[in-house]
Write a structure and sequence with these properties.
single chain, 3 domains, 7-stranded mixed β-sheet, binds adenosine-5'-triphosphate, 23 strands, BirA Bifunctional Protein, domain 2, 5-stranded mixed β-sheet, Rossmann fold
Length: 459
């Protein structure tokens, strides 16, 4: 839940961490040029802070979500998936505390009429005088007032108060209200978790920094239900596990940290909370929160719904309301972090090359196939190889320009492997396999390609 505690709420272009200025601008422009991310409704002038993933970006984000699902659900025996509706009964949001308390403090500048998050003034700039903070430009700021971040809409044709529903501001509540359904139908014993990925909506006062803070975004959340008393151990377990997930997928440890919340940052019910933070070009900022939420959520829903959400422990013959450990991540923020961390410029053959050093599992395109020449049977053979690879993962074909240029184009979207068909391929069936990071090449028989690439990609 938004608690106003993120260490930064930066505006695009504000360097706060000593990173070279302009890295974000380079990434935003590369993302557009190479089909990773476009501005929403661009031909109509765009819609503020809304973004569309292009053909390359959609693969990247899918891979991030798949890597999360694989790790959080498939690889464990004790976490089950769920896919809940975005619109939920309005009482859900009263029970959860969102109607009363999901708000941020807002101030207006009386001069330029811009609205700012009052708790982030120290990191924001005046739109008219960008080198000054809001309120330091001669404009007076209003008193702070609370602004609820939930988007409202109406269910059915009548637009009155009785038909108000909310676009969910988090996916978590879907897991809490389905706790008993999952328990009853799946015959689970504690501890076990319920996981979900999906869209959430928050009417953020100051969205910004590309994909970092938007009003429509996707979350990857898991609620892990445990016996009270075992919560501390699981809280420690999930903090480490979630930090390690980013490192395993290639984030440099020096750009990642785990920040434990101070006592005064904690929600009244929280028994502990820590953020995994990434060092973005605009400063250290939250990627994911891991919280020990105690029994707050299940107790609230039991009270508001009148349904029993307790658990009977067959082993100890006790009945209790489970505690919950919640790792709550953002798919778009994680995608942005993987993109920023992968971005690199180096020198190859006397030229500066831009390369996205994605972990092969996250790379949008896994391999590109190039015929060395447009004759000699090279294009036909390359197409044949392409057809063999296609059912397994996204691949591209490119026969335009010098081989160096073709490699560069793939480096820019982070394709880890390049396969070149040359005269020797026609003679002995071997191709060259080029590694994006080492820029080295080896020869491999075409019949070994699928198995070898699957091994290297899924590793
Ligand atoms: P913040 O303090 O940055 O507003 P939060 O603490 O309110 O975030 P949570 O409610 O814990 O965030 O949500 C879990 C995750 O969902 C966040 O760590 C983040 O990755 C993602 N998230 C939350 N709000 C947004 C947003 N407006 N845009 C993109 N991702 C978001």
């Amino acid at each position: 839940m938004s608690d106003g505690t993120s260490t930064t709420t930066p505006q695009a272009g504000k360097g706060a961490s000593g990173e070279p200025q302009g890295k974000m601008e380079k990434i935003v422009s590369l993302a557009k040029r190479r089909g990773l991310v476009f501005q929403s409704s661009e031909i109509y002038g765009g819609l503020s802070s809304c973004w569309d993933y292009g053909p390359v970006g959609v693969e990247l984000k899918r891979n991030v979500k798949d890597a999360w699902w694989r790790e959080m659900v498939w690889s464990r025996g004790d976490v089950l998936g769920l896919d809940c509706s975005i619109l939920m009964h309005p009482r859900v949001w009263e029970a959860s505390g969102h109607v009363a308390g999901f708000s941020d403090p807002l101030v207006d500048c009386k001069k330029c009429k811009t609205r700012f998050r009052a708790d982030h003034l120290g990191q924001l700039s005046c739109p008219e005088k960008p080198d000054r903070r809001p309120g330091e430009c001669g404009g007076e700021l209003t008193e702070a007032r609370q602004f609820n971040l939930m988007f409202k809409t109406f269910m059915g044709p009548v637009e009155d108060a009785a038909n108000v529903v909310f676009m969910r501001p988090e996916t978590a509540q879907g897991m809490f209200v389905n706790f008993a359904n999952v328990l009853d139908t799946q015959r689970r014993k504690l501890p076990f978790g319920i996981a979900q990925t999906g869209k959430s909506f928050r009417n953020e006062i100051t969205p910004g920094n590309f994909l970092f803070r938007t009003r429509e975004f996707e979350q990857m959340e898991m609620e892990f239900f445990v016996k009270p008393g075992e919560d501390e151990r699981w809280y420690e377990f999930w903090k480490k596990e979630r930090y390690d997930w980013y490192v395993r997928l290639g984030i440099k440890p020096e750009n990642l940290r785990l920040r434990e919340h101070e006592k005064d940052e904690l929600a009244h019910y929280a028994r502990g909370c820590a953020d995994v933070e990434y060092k973005f070009p605009f400063g250290w900022s939250e990627l994911e929160g891991i919280a020990n939420r105690g029994d707050f959520d299940l107790r609230q829903h039991a009270e508001w719904s009148g349904k029993d959400l307790s658990y009977f422990d067959e082993d100890s013959r006790e009945r209790y309301v489970p505690y919950v450990i919640e790792p709550a991540a953002g798919a778009d923020r994680a995608t942005l972090a993987f993109l920023v961390d992968a971005y690199d410029e180096d020198e190859v053959e006397g030229e500066t090359r831009v390369v996205l050093r994605f972990h092969p599992r996250l790379a949008p395109v896994k391999a590109a196939v190039f015929p060395l020449l447009r004759k000699g049977g090279h294009p036909e053979k390359a197409q044949e190889i392409l057809a063999k690879l296609r059912p397994h993962f996204p691949v591209q074909y490119d026969q335009a320009g010098s081989i160096g240029r073709r490699y560069r184009r793939q480096d820019e979207i982070g394709t880890p492997f390049g396969i070149t068909v040359d005269h020797q391929t026609i003679e002995d069936g071997t191709v060259t396999l080029r590694d994006r990071d080492k820029t080295s090449q080896e020869r491999i028989h075409e019949s070994d390609l699928v198995a070898e690439l699957l091994r290297r990609v899924l590793g």
